[in-house]
What we know:
Elements: H1 21-25, H2 43-48, E1 50-54, H3 58-62, E2 65-66, E3 69-70, H4 88-93, H5 105-115, E4 119-125, H6 152-163, E5 166-172, H7 197-214, E6 221-225, H8 232-245, E7 250-251, E8 263-264, E9 279-284, H9 301-313, E10 317-322, H10 332-347, H11 349-352, E11 367-372, E12 375-380, E13 388-391, E14 398-403, E15 413-417, E16 420-424, E17 435-441, E18 452-454, E19 460-464, E20 469-471, E21 475-481, E22 487-493, E23 501-508, E24 512-522, E25 524-532, E26 537-544, E27 549-558, E28 562-570, E29 577-586
Parallel strand pairs: 1-4, 1-10, 4-5, 5-6, 6-7, 8-9, 9-10, 18-23
Antiparallel strand pairs: 2-3, 11-12, 12-17, 13-16, 14-17, 15-16, 19-29, 20-23, 21-22, 23-28, 24-27, 24-29, 25-26, 25-28
Helix pairs in contact: 5-6, 5-10, 7-8, 9-10
The structure holds alpha-D-glucopyranose (GLC).
Amino acid sequence: xxxxxxxxxxxxxxxxxxxxxxxxxxxxxxxxxxxxxxxxxxxxxxxxxxxxxxxxxxxxxxxxxxxxxxxxxxxxxxxxxxxxxxxxxxxxxxxxxxxxxxxxxxxxxxxxxxxxxxxxxxxxxxxxxxxxxxxxxxxxxxxxxxxxxxxxxxxxxxxxxxxxxxxxxxxxxxxxxxxxxxxxxxxxxxxxxxxxxxxxxxxxxxxxxxxxxxxxxxxxxxxxxxxxxxxxxxxxxxxxxxxxxxxxxxxxxxxxxxxxxxxxxxxxxxxxxxxxxxxxxxxxxxxxxxxxxxxxxxxxxxxxxxxxxxxxxxxxxxxxxxxxxxxxxxxxxxxxxxxxxxxxxxxxxxxxxxxxxxxxxxxxxxxxxxxxxxxxxxxxxxxxxxxxxxxxxxxxxxxxxxxxxxxxxxxxxxxxxxxxxxxxxxxxxxxxxxxxxxxxxxxxxxxxxxxxxxxxxxxxxxxxxxxxxxxxxxxxxxxxxxxxxxxxxxxxxxxxxxxxxxxxxxxxxxxxxxxxxxxxxxxxxxxxxxxxxxxxxxxxxxxxxxxxxxxxxxxxxxxxxxxxxxxxxxxxxxxxxxxxxxxxxxxxx
Length: 589
Ligand code: GLC
């Protein structure tokens, strides 16, 4: 297996996990010595950094409504018992009214291209078992079971090829709710004969993976999902088929048994700290992967760009989902946001393509940073109001700073105060979306101090417990769902009322007073104490509610510039609460 990356994932990412911080942070992904960039394999993933995910299937036509009732949650799960609990045969019969006559592969591929994306991954078969391609092994597919009668995957593969985009398939290997033997499907066939997972796997799953890897030209990625309890022998079989038919395709970590070529984080998760190795974050233009008629909660172009840039800044690749409707149209709002953010990407290609992770290893208060060689791209999400951008922790020589899209090449005046670089930037935000400043460093050996720094203007609005040292308590990741299937993630420390302590180290440029808030979840009142290394002290009682929200603690003053510690404790025996982050907002006098 020459030229193949082997990643070892220390834990299996599925969905809905709460794990300890050590498991999260120590996840190492070992690359083989072979240089990925020396081959075509994985190039679009690693260099392109940006992809379109498409969830499209029979569920798109149902649009989260069944028998006149609307269900809230990810629409591709509508059939499942957690949602509408639809009878298998009734669900299958619904394919008769699926006729996506507006489907225009070229239009969708063009949208991905205009968005600045480099490849498309589309659902070939989701958990409902319905194939969106012409399968010879199972009639429950878009050609044989619908009035549409075309193979849209052929058209999309072709359209991608014409536009120079990569193409790949999502395939749900373990769950198949309509094929006897598949996970969550009946264990008997229509005649009452027993059907095992092995039957489903050999008669449908493996042959269909054979089909999608043989009949659609070159494939970038086969994106398996929800491995559940699948046995390793099945995973080995799937890998063998993919490697044999598509030696250049990468396989997602959700194939199971830590056997993927890259790691997909949990749905809708951008990590707070840099992660090494090949990995991706995935998100949705609204809330549901598949089309849901009511789902109008669109991400703005700026939100899309921030997630894209911050994912790359953490060292990853980003994949953004669209859910075409039952007629085959991508909702106009999603398309508009993607086109607009795509125009930004076209103005700043170096911030995205081939860009590397931020040397700070986490977000900065005003935005994030990507890198190419000796150039740092400061993507300023929140443009400063006082004409100064504060760049903390600079230990290397900065040759020059300029606005990235400034054709005049005019330099930005820079001053160094300790290791804070202070840039004199225009008062008016140059790019109404996100402005980018290019810092050209003397050489590729860039040294920055990664300590969390208190921006004199913005402070530290969201300093996660992930950046704190803990004593007699631990940091855990918690994941919850707002609607069914719509995940949120954060890190928490939970047991401070048993004598635990959390200590953050922050860098301060000048004497400063901050309003301190706690982002907390709990049940009832608790007394909090926050103490700095200079002996300043806040003690206050606040009420935590069941949803994370910010409660104010009080003012904290830092007298001296430099590094400080602040330690949070709770009075013993108080109501337990989960602390997610602290906010330090400078007070203006
Ligand atoms: C989850 C869901 C699935 C969705 C996927 C996207 O695994 O089960 O419906 O396709 O996330 O990442």
